[in-house]
Amino acid sequence: MSWTMTQIKQHKRAANLLNRILIEVIEYIKNKPETTDVAIRQFIKQQYKKHRLISDKQKSIVAFSKNTSQVHYYAEQPRKLKKGDLIMIDIWARLAKKGAPFADITWMMYYGRKLPREYAQAFKLVAQARDKAIDFFKNSLKNKTVPLGKEADSVVRSYLEKHGQRDRFLHGTGHSLGFANPHGRRVRINRKGRLPIPINVGYTIEPGIYFKNEFGIRSEIDFYIDSPGEIRLRRSSPCGIPTGCEANSTGQAISRGENYKLIITTICQKQIIKIWKKS
To answer: Where are the alpha helices (DSSP H) in the chain?
Structure first.
């Protein structure tokens, strides 16, 4: 069953607020450089309340350095932020309204002046894999086809495998967004996704690569397919945060007698965000 127009608007609102919260996290870290992963997670929880968002019982993912190598890291004992730390923040929430769907995004940050080359290269590869999935959806819709979940997953997986990262991509490419938690029950974007991606249902695209006990990189965006048929990606970014996915194109896509468009509802991070407050 597709989302209603009200639910689509609720998802877009939640996605915009999550983007804002991550920007608020950046400012929080700048102003509190002695912070910890647990403190940042608590700040995120406070911002949910401030923006009238609710989440599920699972804790937000805030990971530093080698802890980013875990797909789902939930800090128990506080770990202090240090210069040179890679930061992964994965947050999800929905409007505090009955039947409102979740939004779910992951950003990568770095606490320091100069980003290490290995982090930059790994992020570039992950972002390119993410954008390959977007291009695949665009081209499929242009050719009047709504792709299967496994087809989109194969595009990302093949790209990472081509660059020697097959064994470091430890999860599926994406999932539908739910109402009780961020993981919905519709066809997944993974090897087992044998059905077309449903229309007017929110989804994630979230490729990642993980170097055991070293570091991990993930980039997660949200999207849905709607009609009529043009591809629209978010161009602007608040507070000067660089985005990707700017290369828009337009195309007709017909399935079940209708036209479709792909809409990205969250910021496409173009590079790791460096955080450093000048003394």
So the answer is: 5-31, 37-50, 117-142, 149-162
**Residue 23 to residues 28, 108, 113, 240, Cα–Cα distance (Å):** 9, 12, 18, 10
Q: Rounded distance, CA 53 to CA 48, Å?
A: 5
220 in helix, strand or coil?
strand
Tell me the percentage of the chain whose pLDDT exceeds 90.
81
Q: Is the pLDDT of residue 141 over 80?
A: yes
d(CA 127, CA 137): 16
Spans of all domains in the chain: 5-275
Q: CATH topology for 5-275?
A: Creatine Amidinohydrolase (3.90.230)
Task: Judge whether 209 and 122 are in contact, CB under 8 Å.
Answer: yes
pLDDT at 173 over 50: yes
Question: Mean pLDDT over residues 115-130, rounded?
Answer: 98
Lowest-pLDDT range of 85-94, 105-114, 139-148: 139-148
Answer yes or no: are the C-beta atoms of 190 and 79 closer than 8 Å. Answer: no
Helix, strand or coil for residue 25?
helix
Give the list of residues 6+ apart from residue 100 with CB closer than 8 angstroms, or none. 7, 10, 11, 14, 94, 179
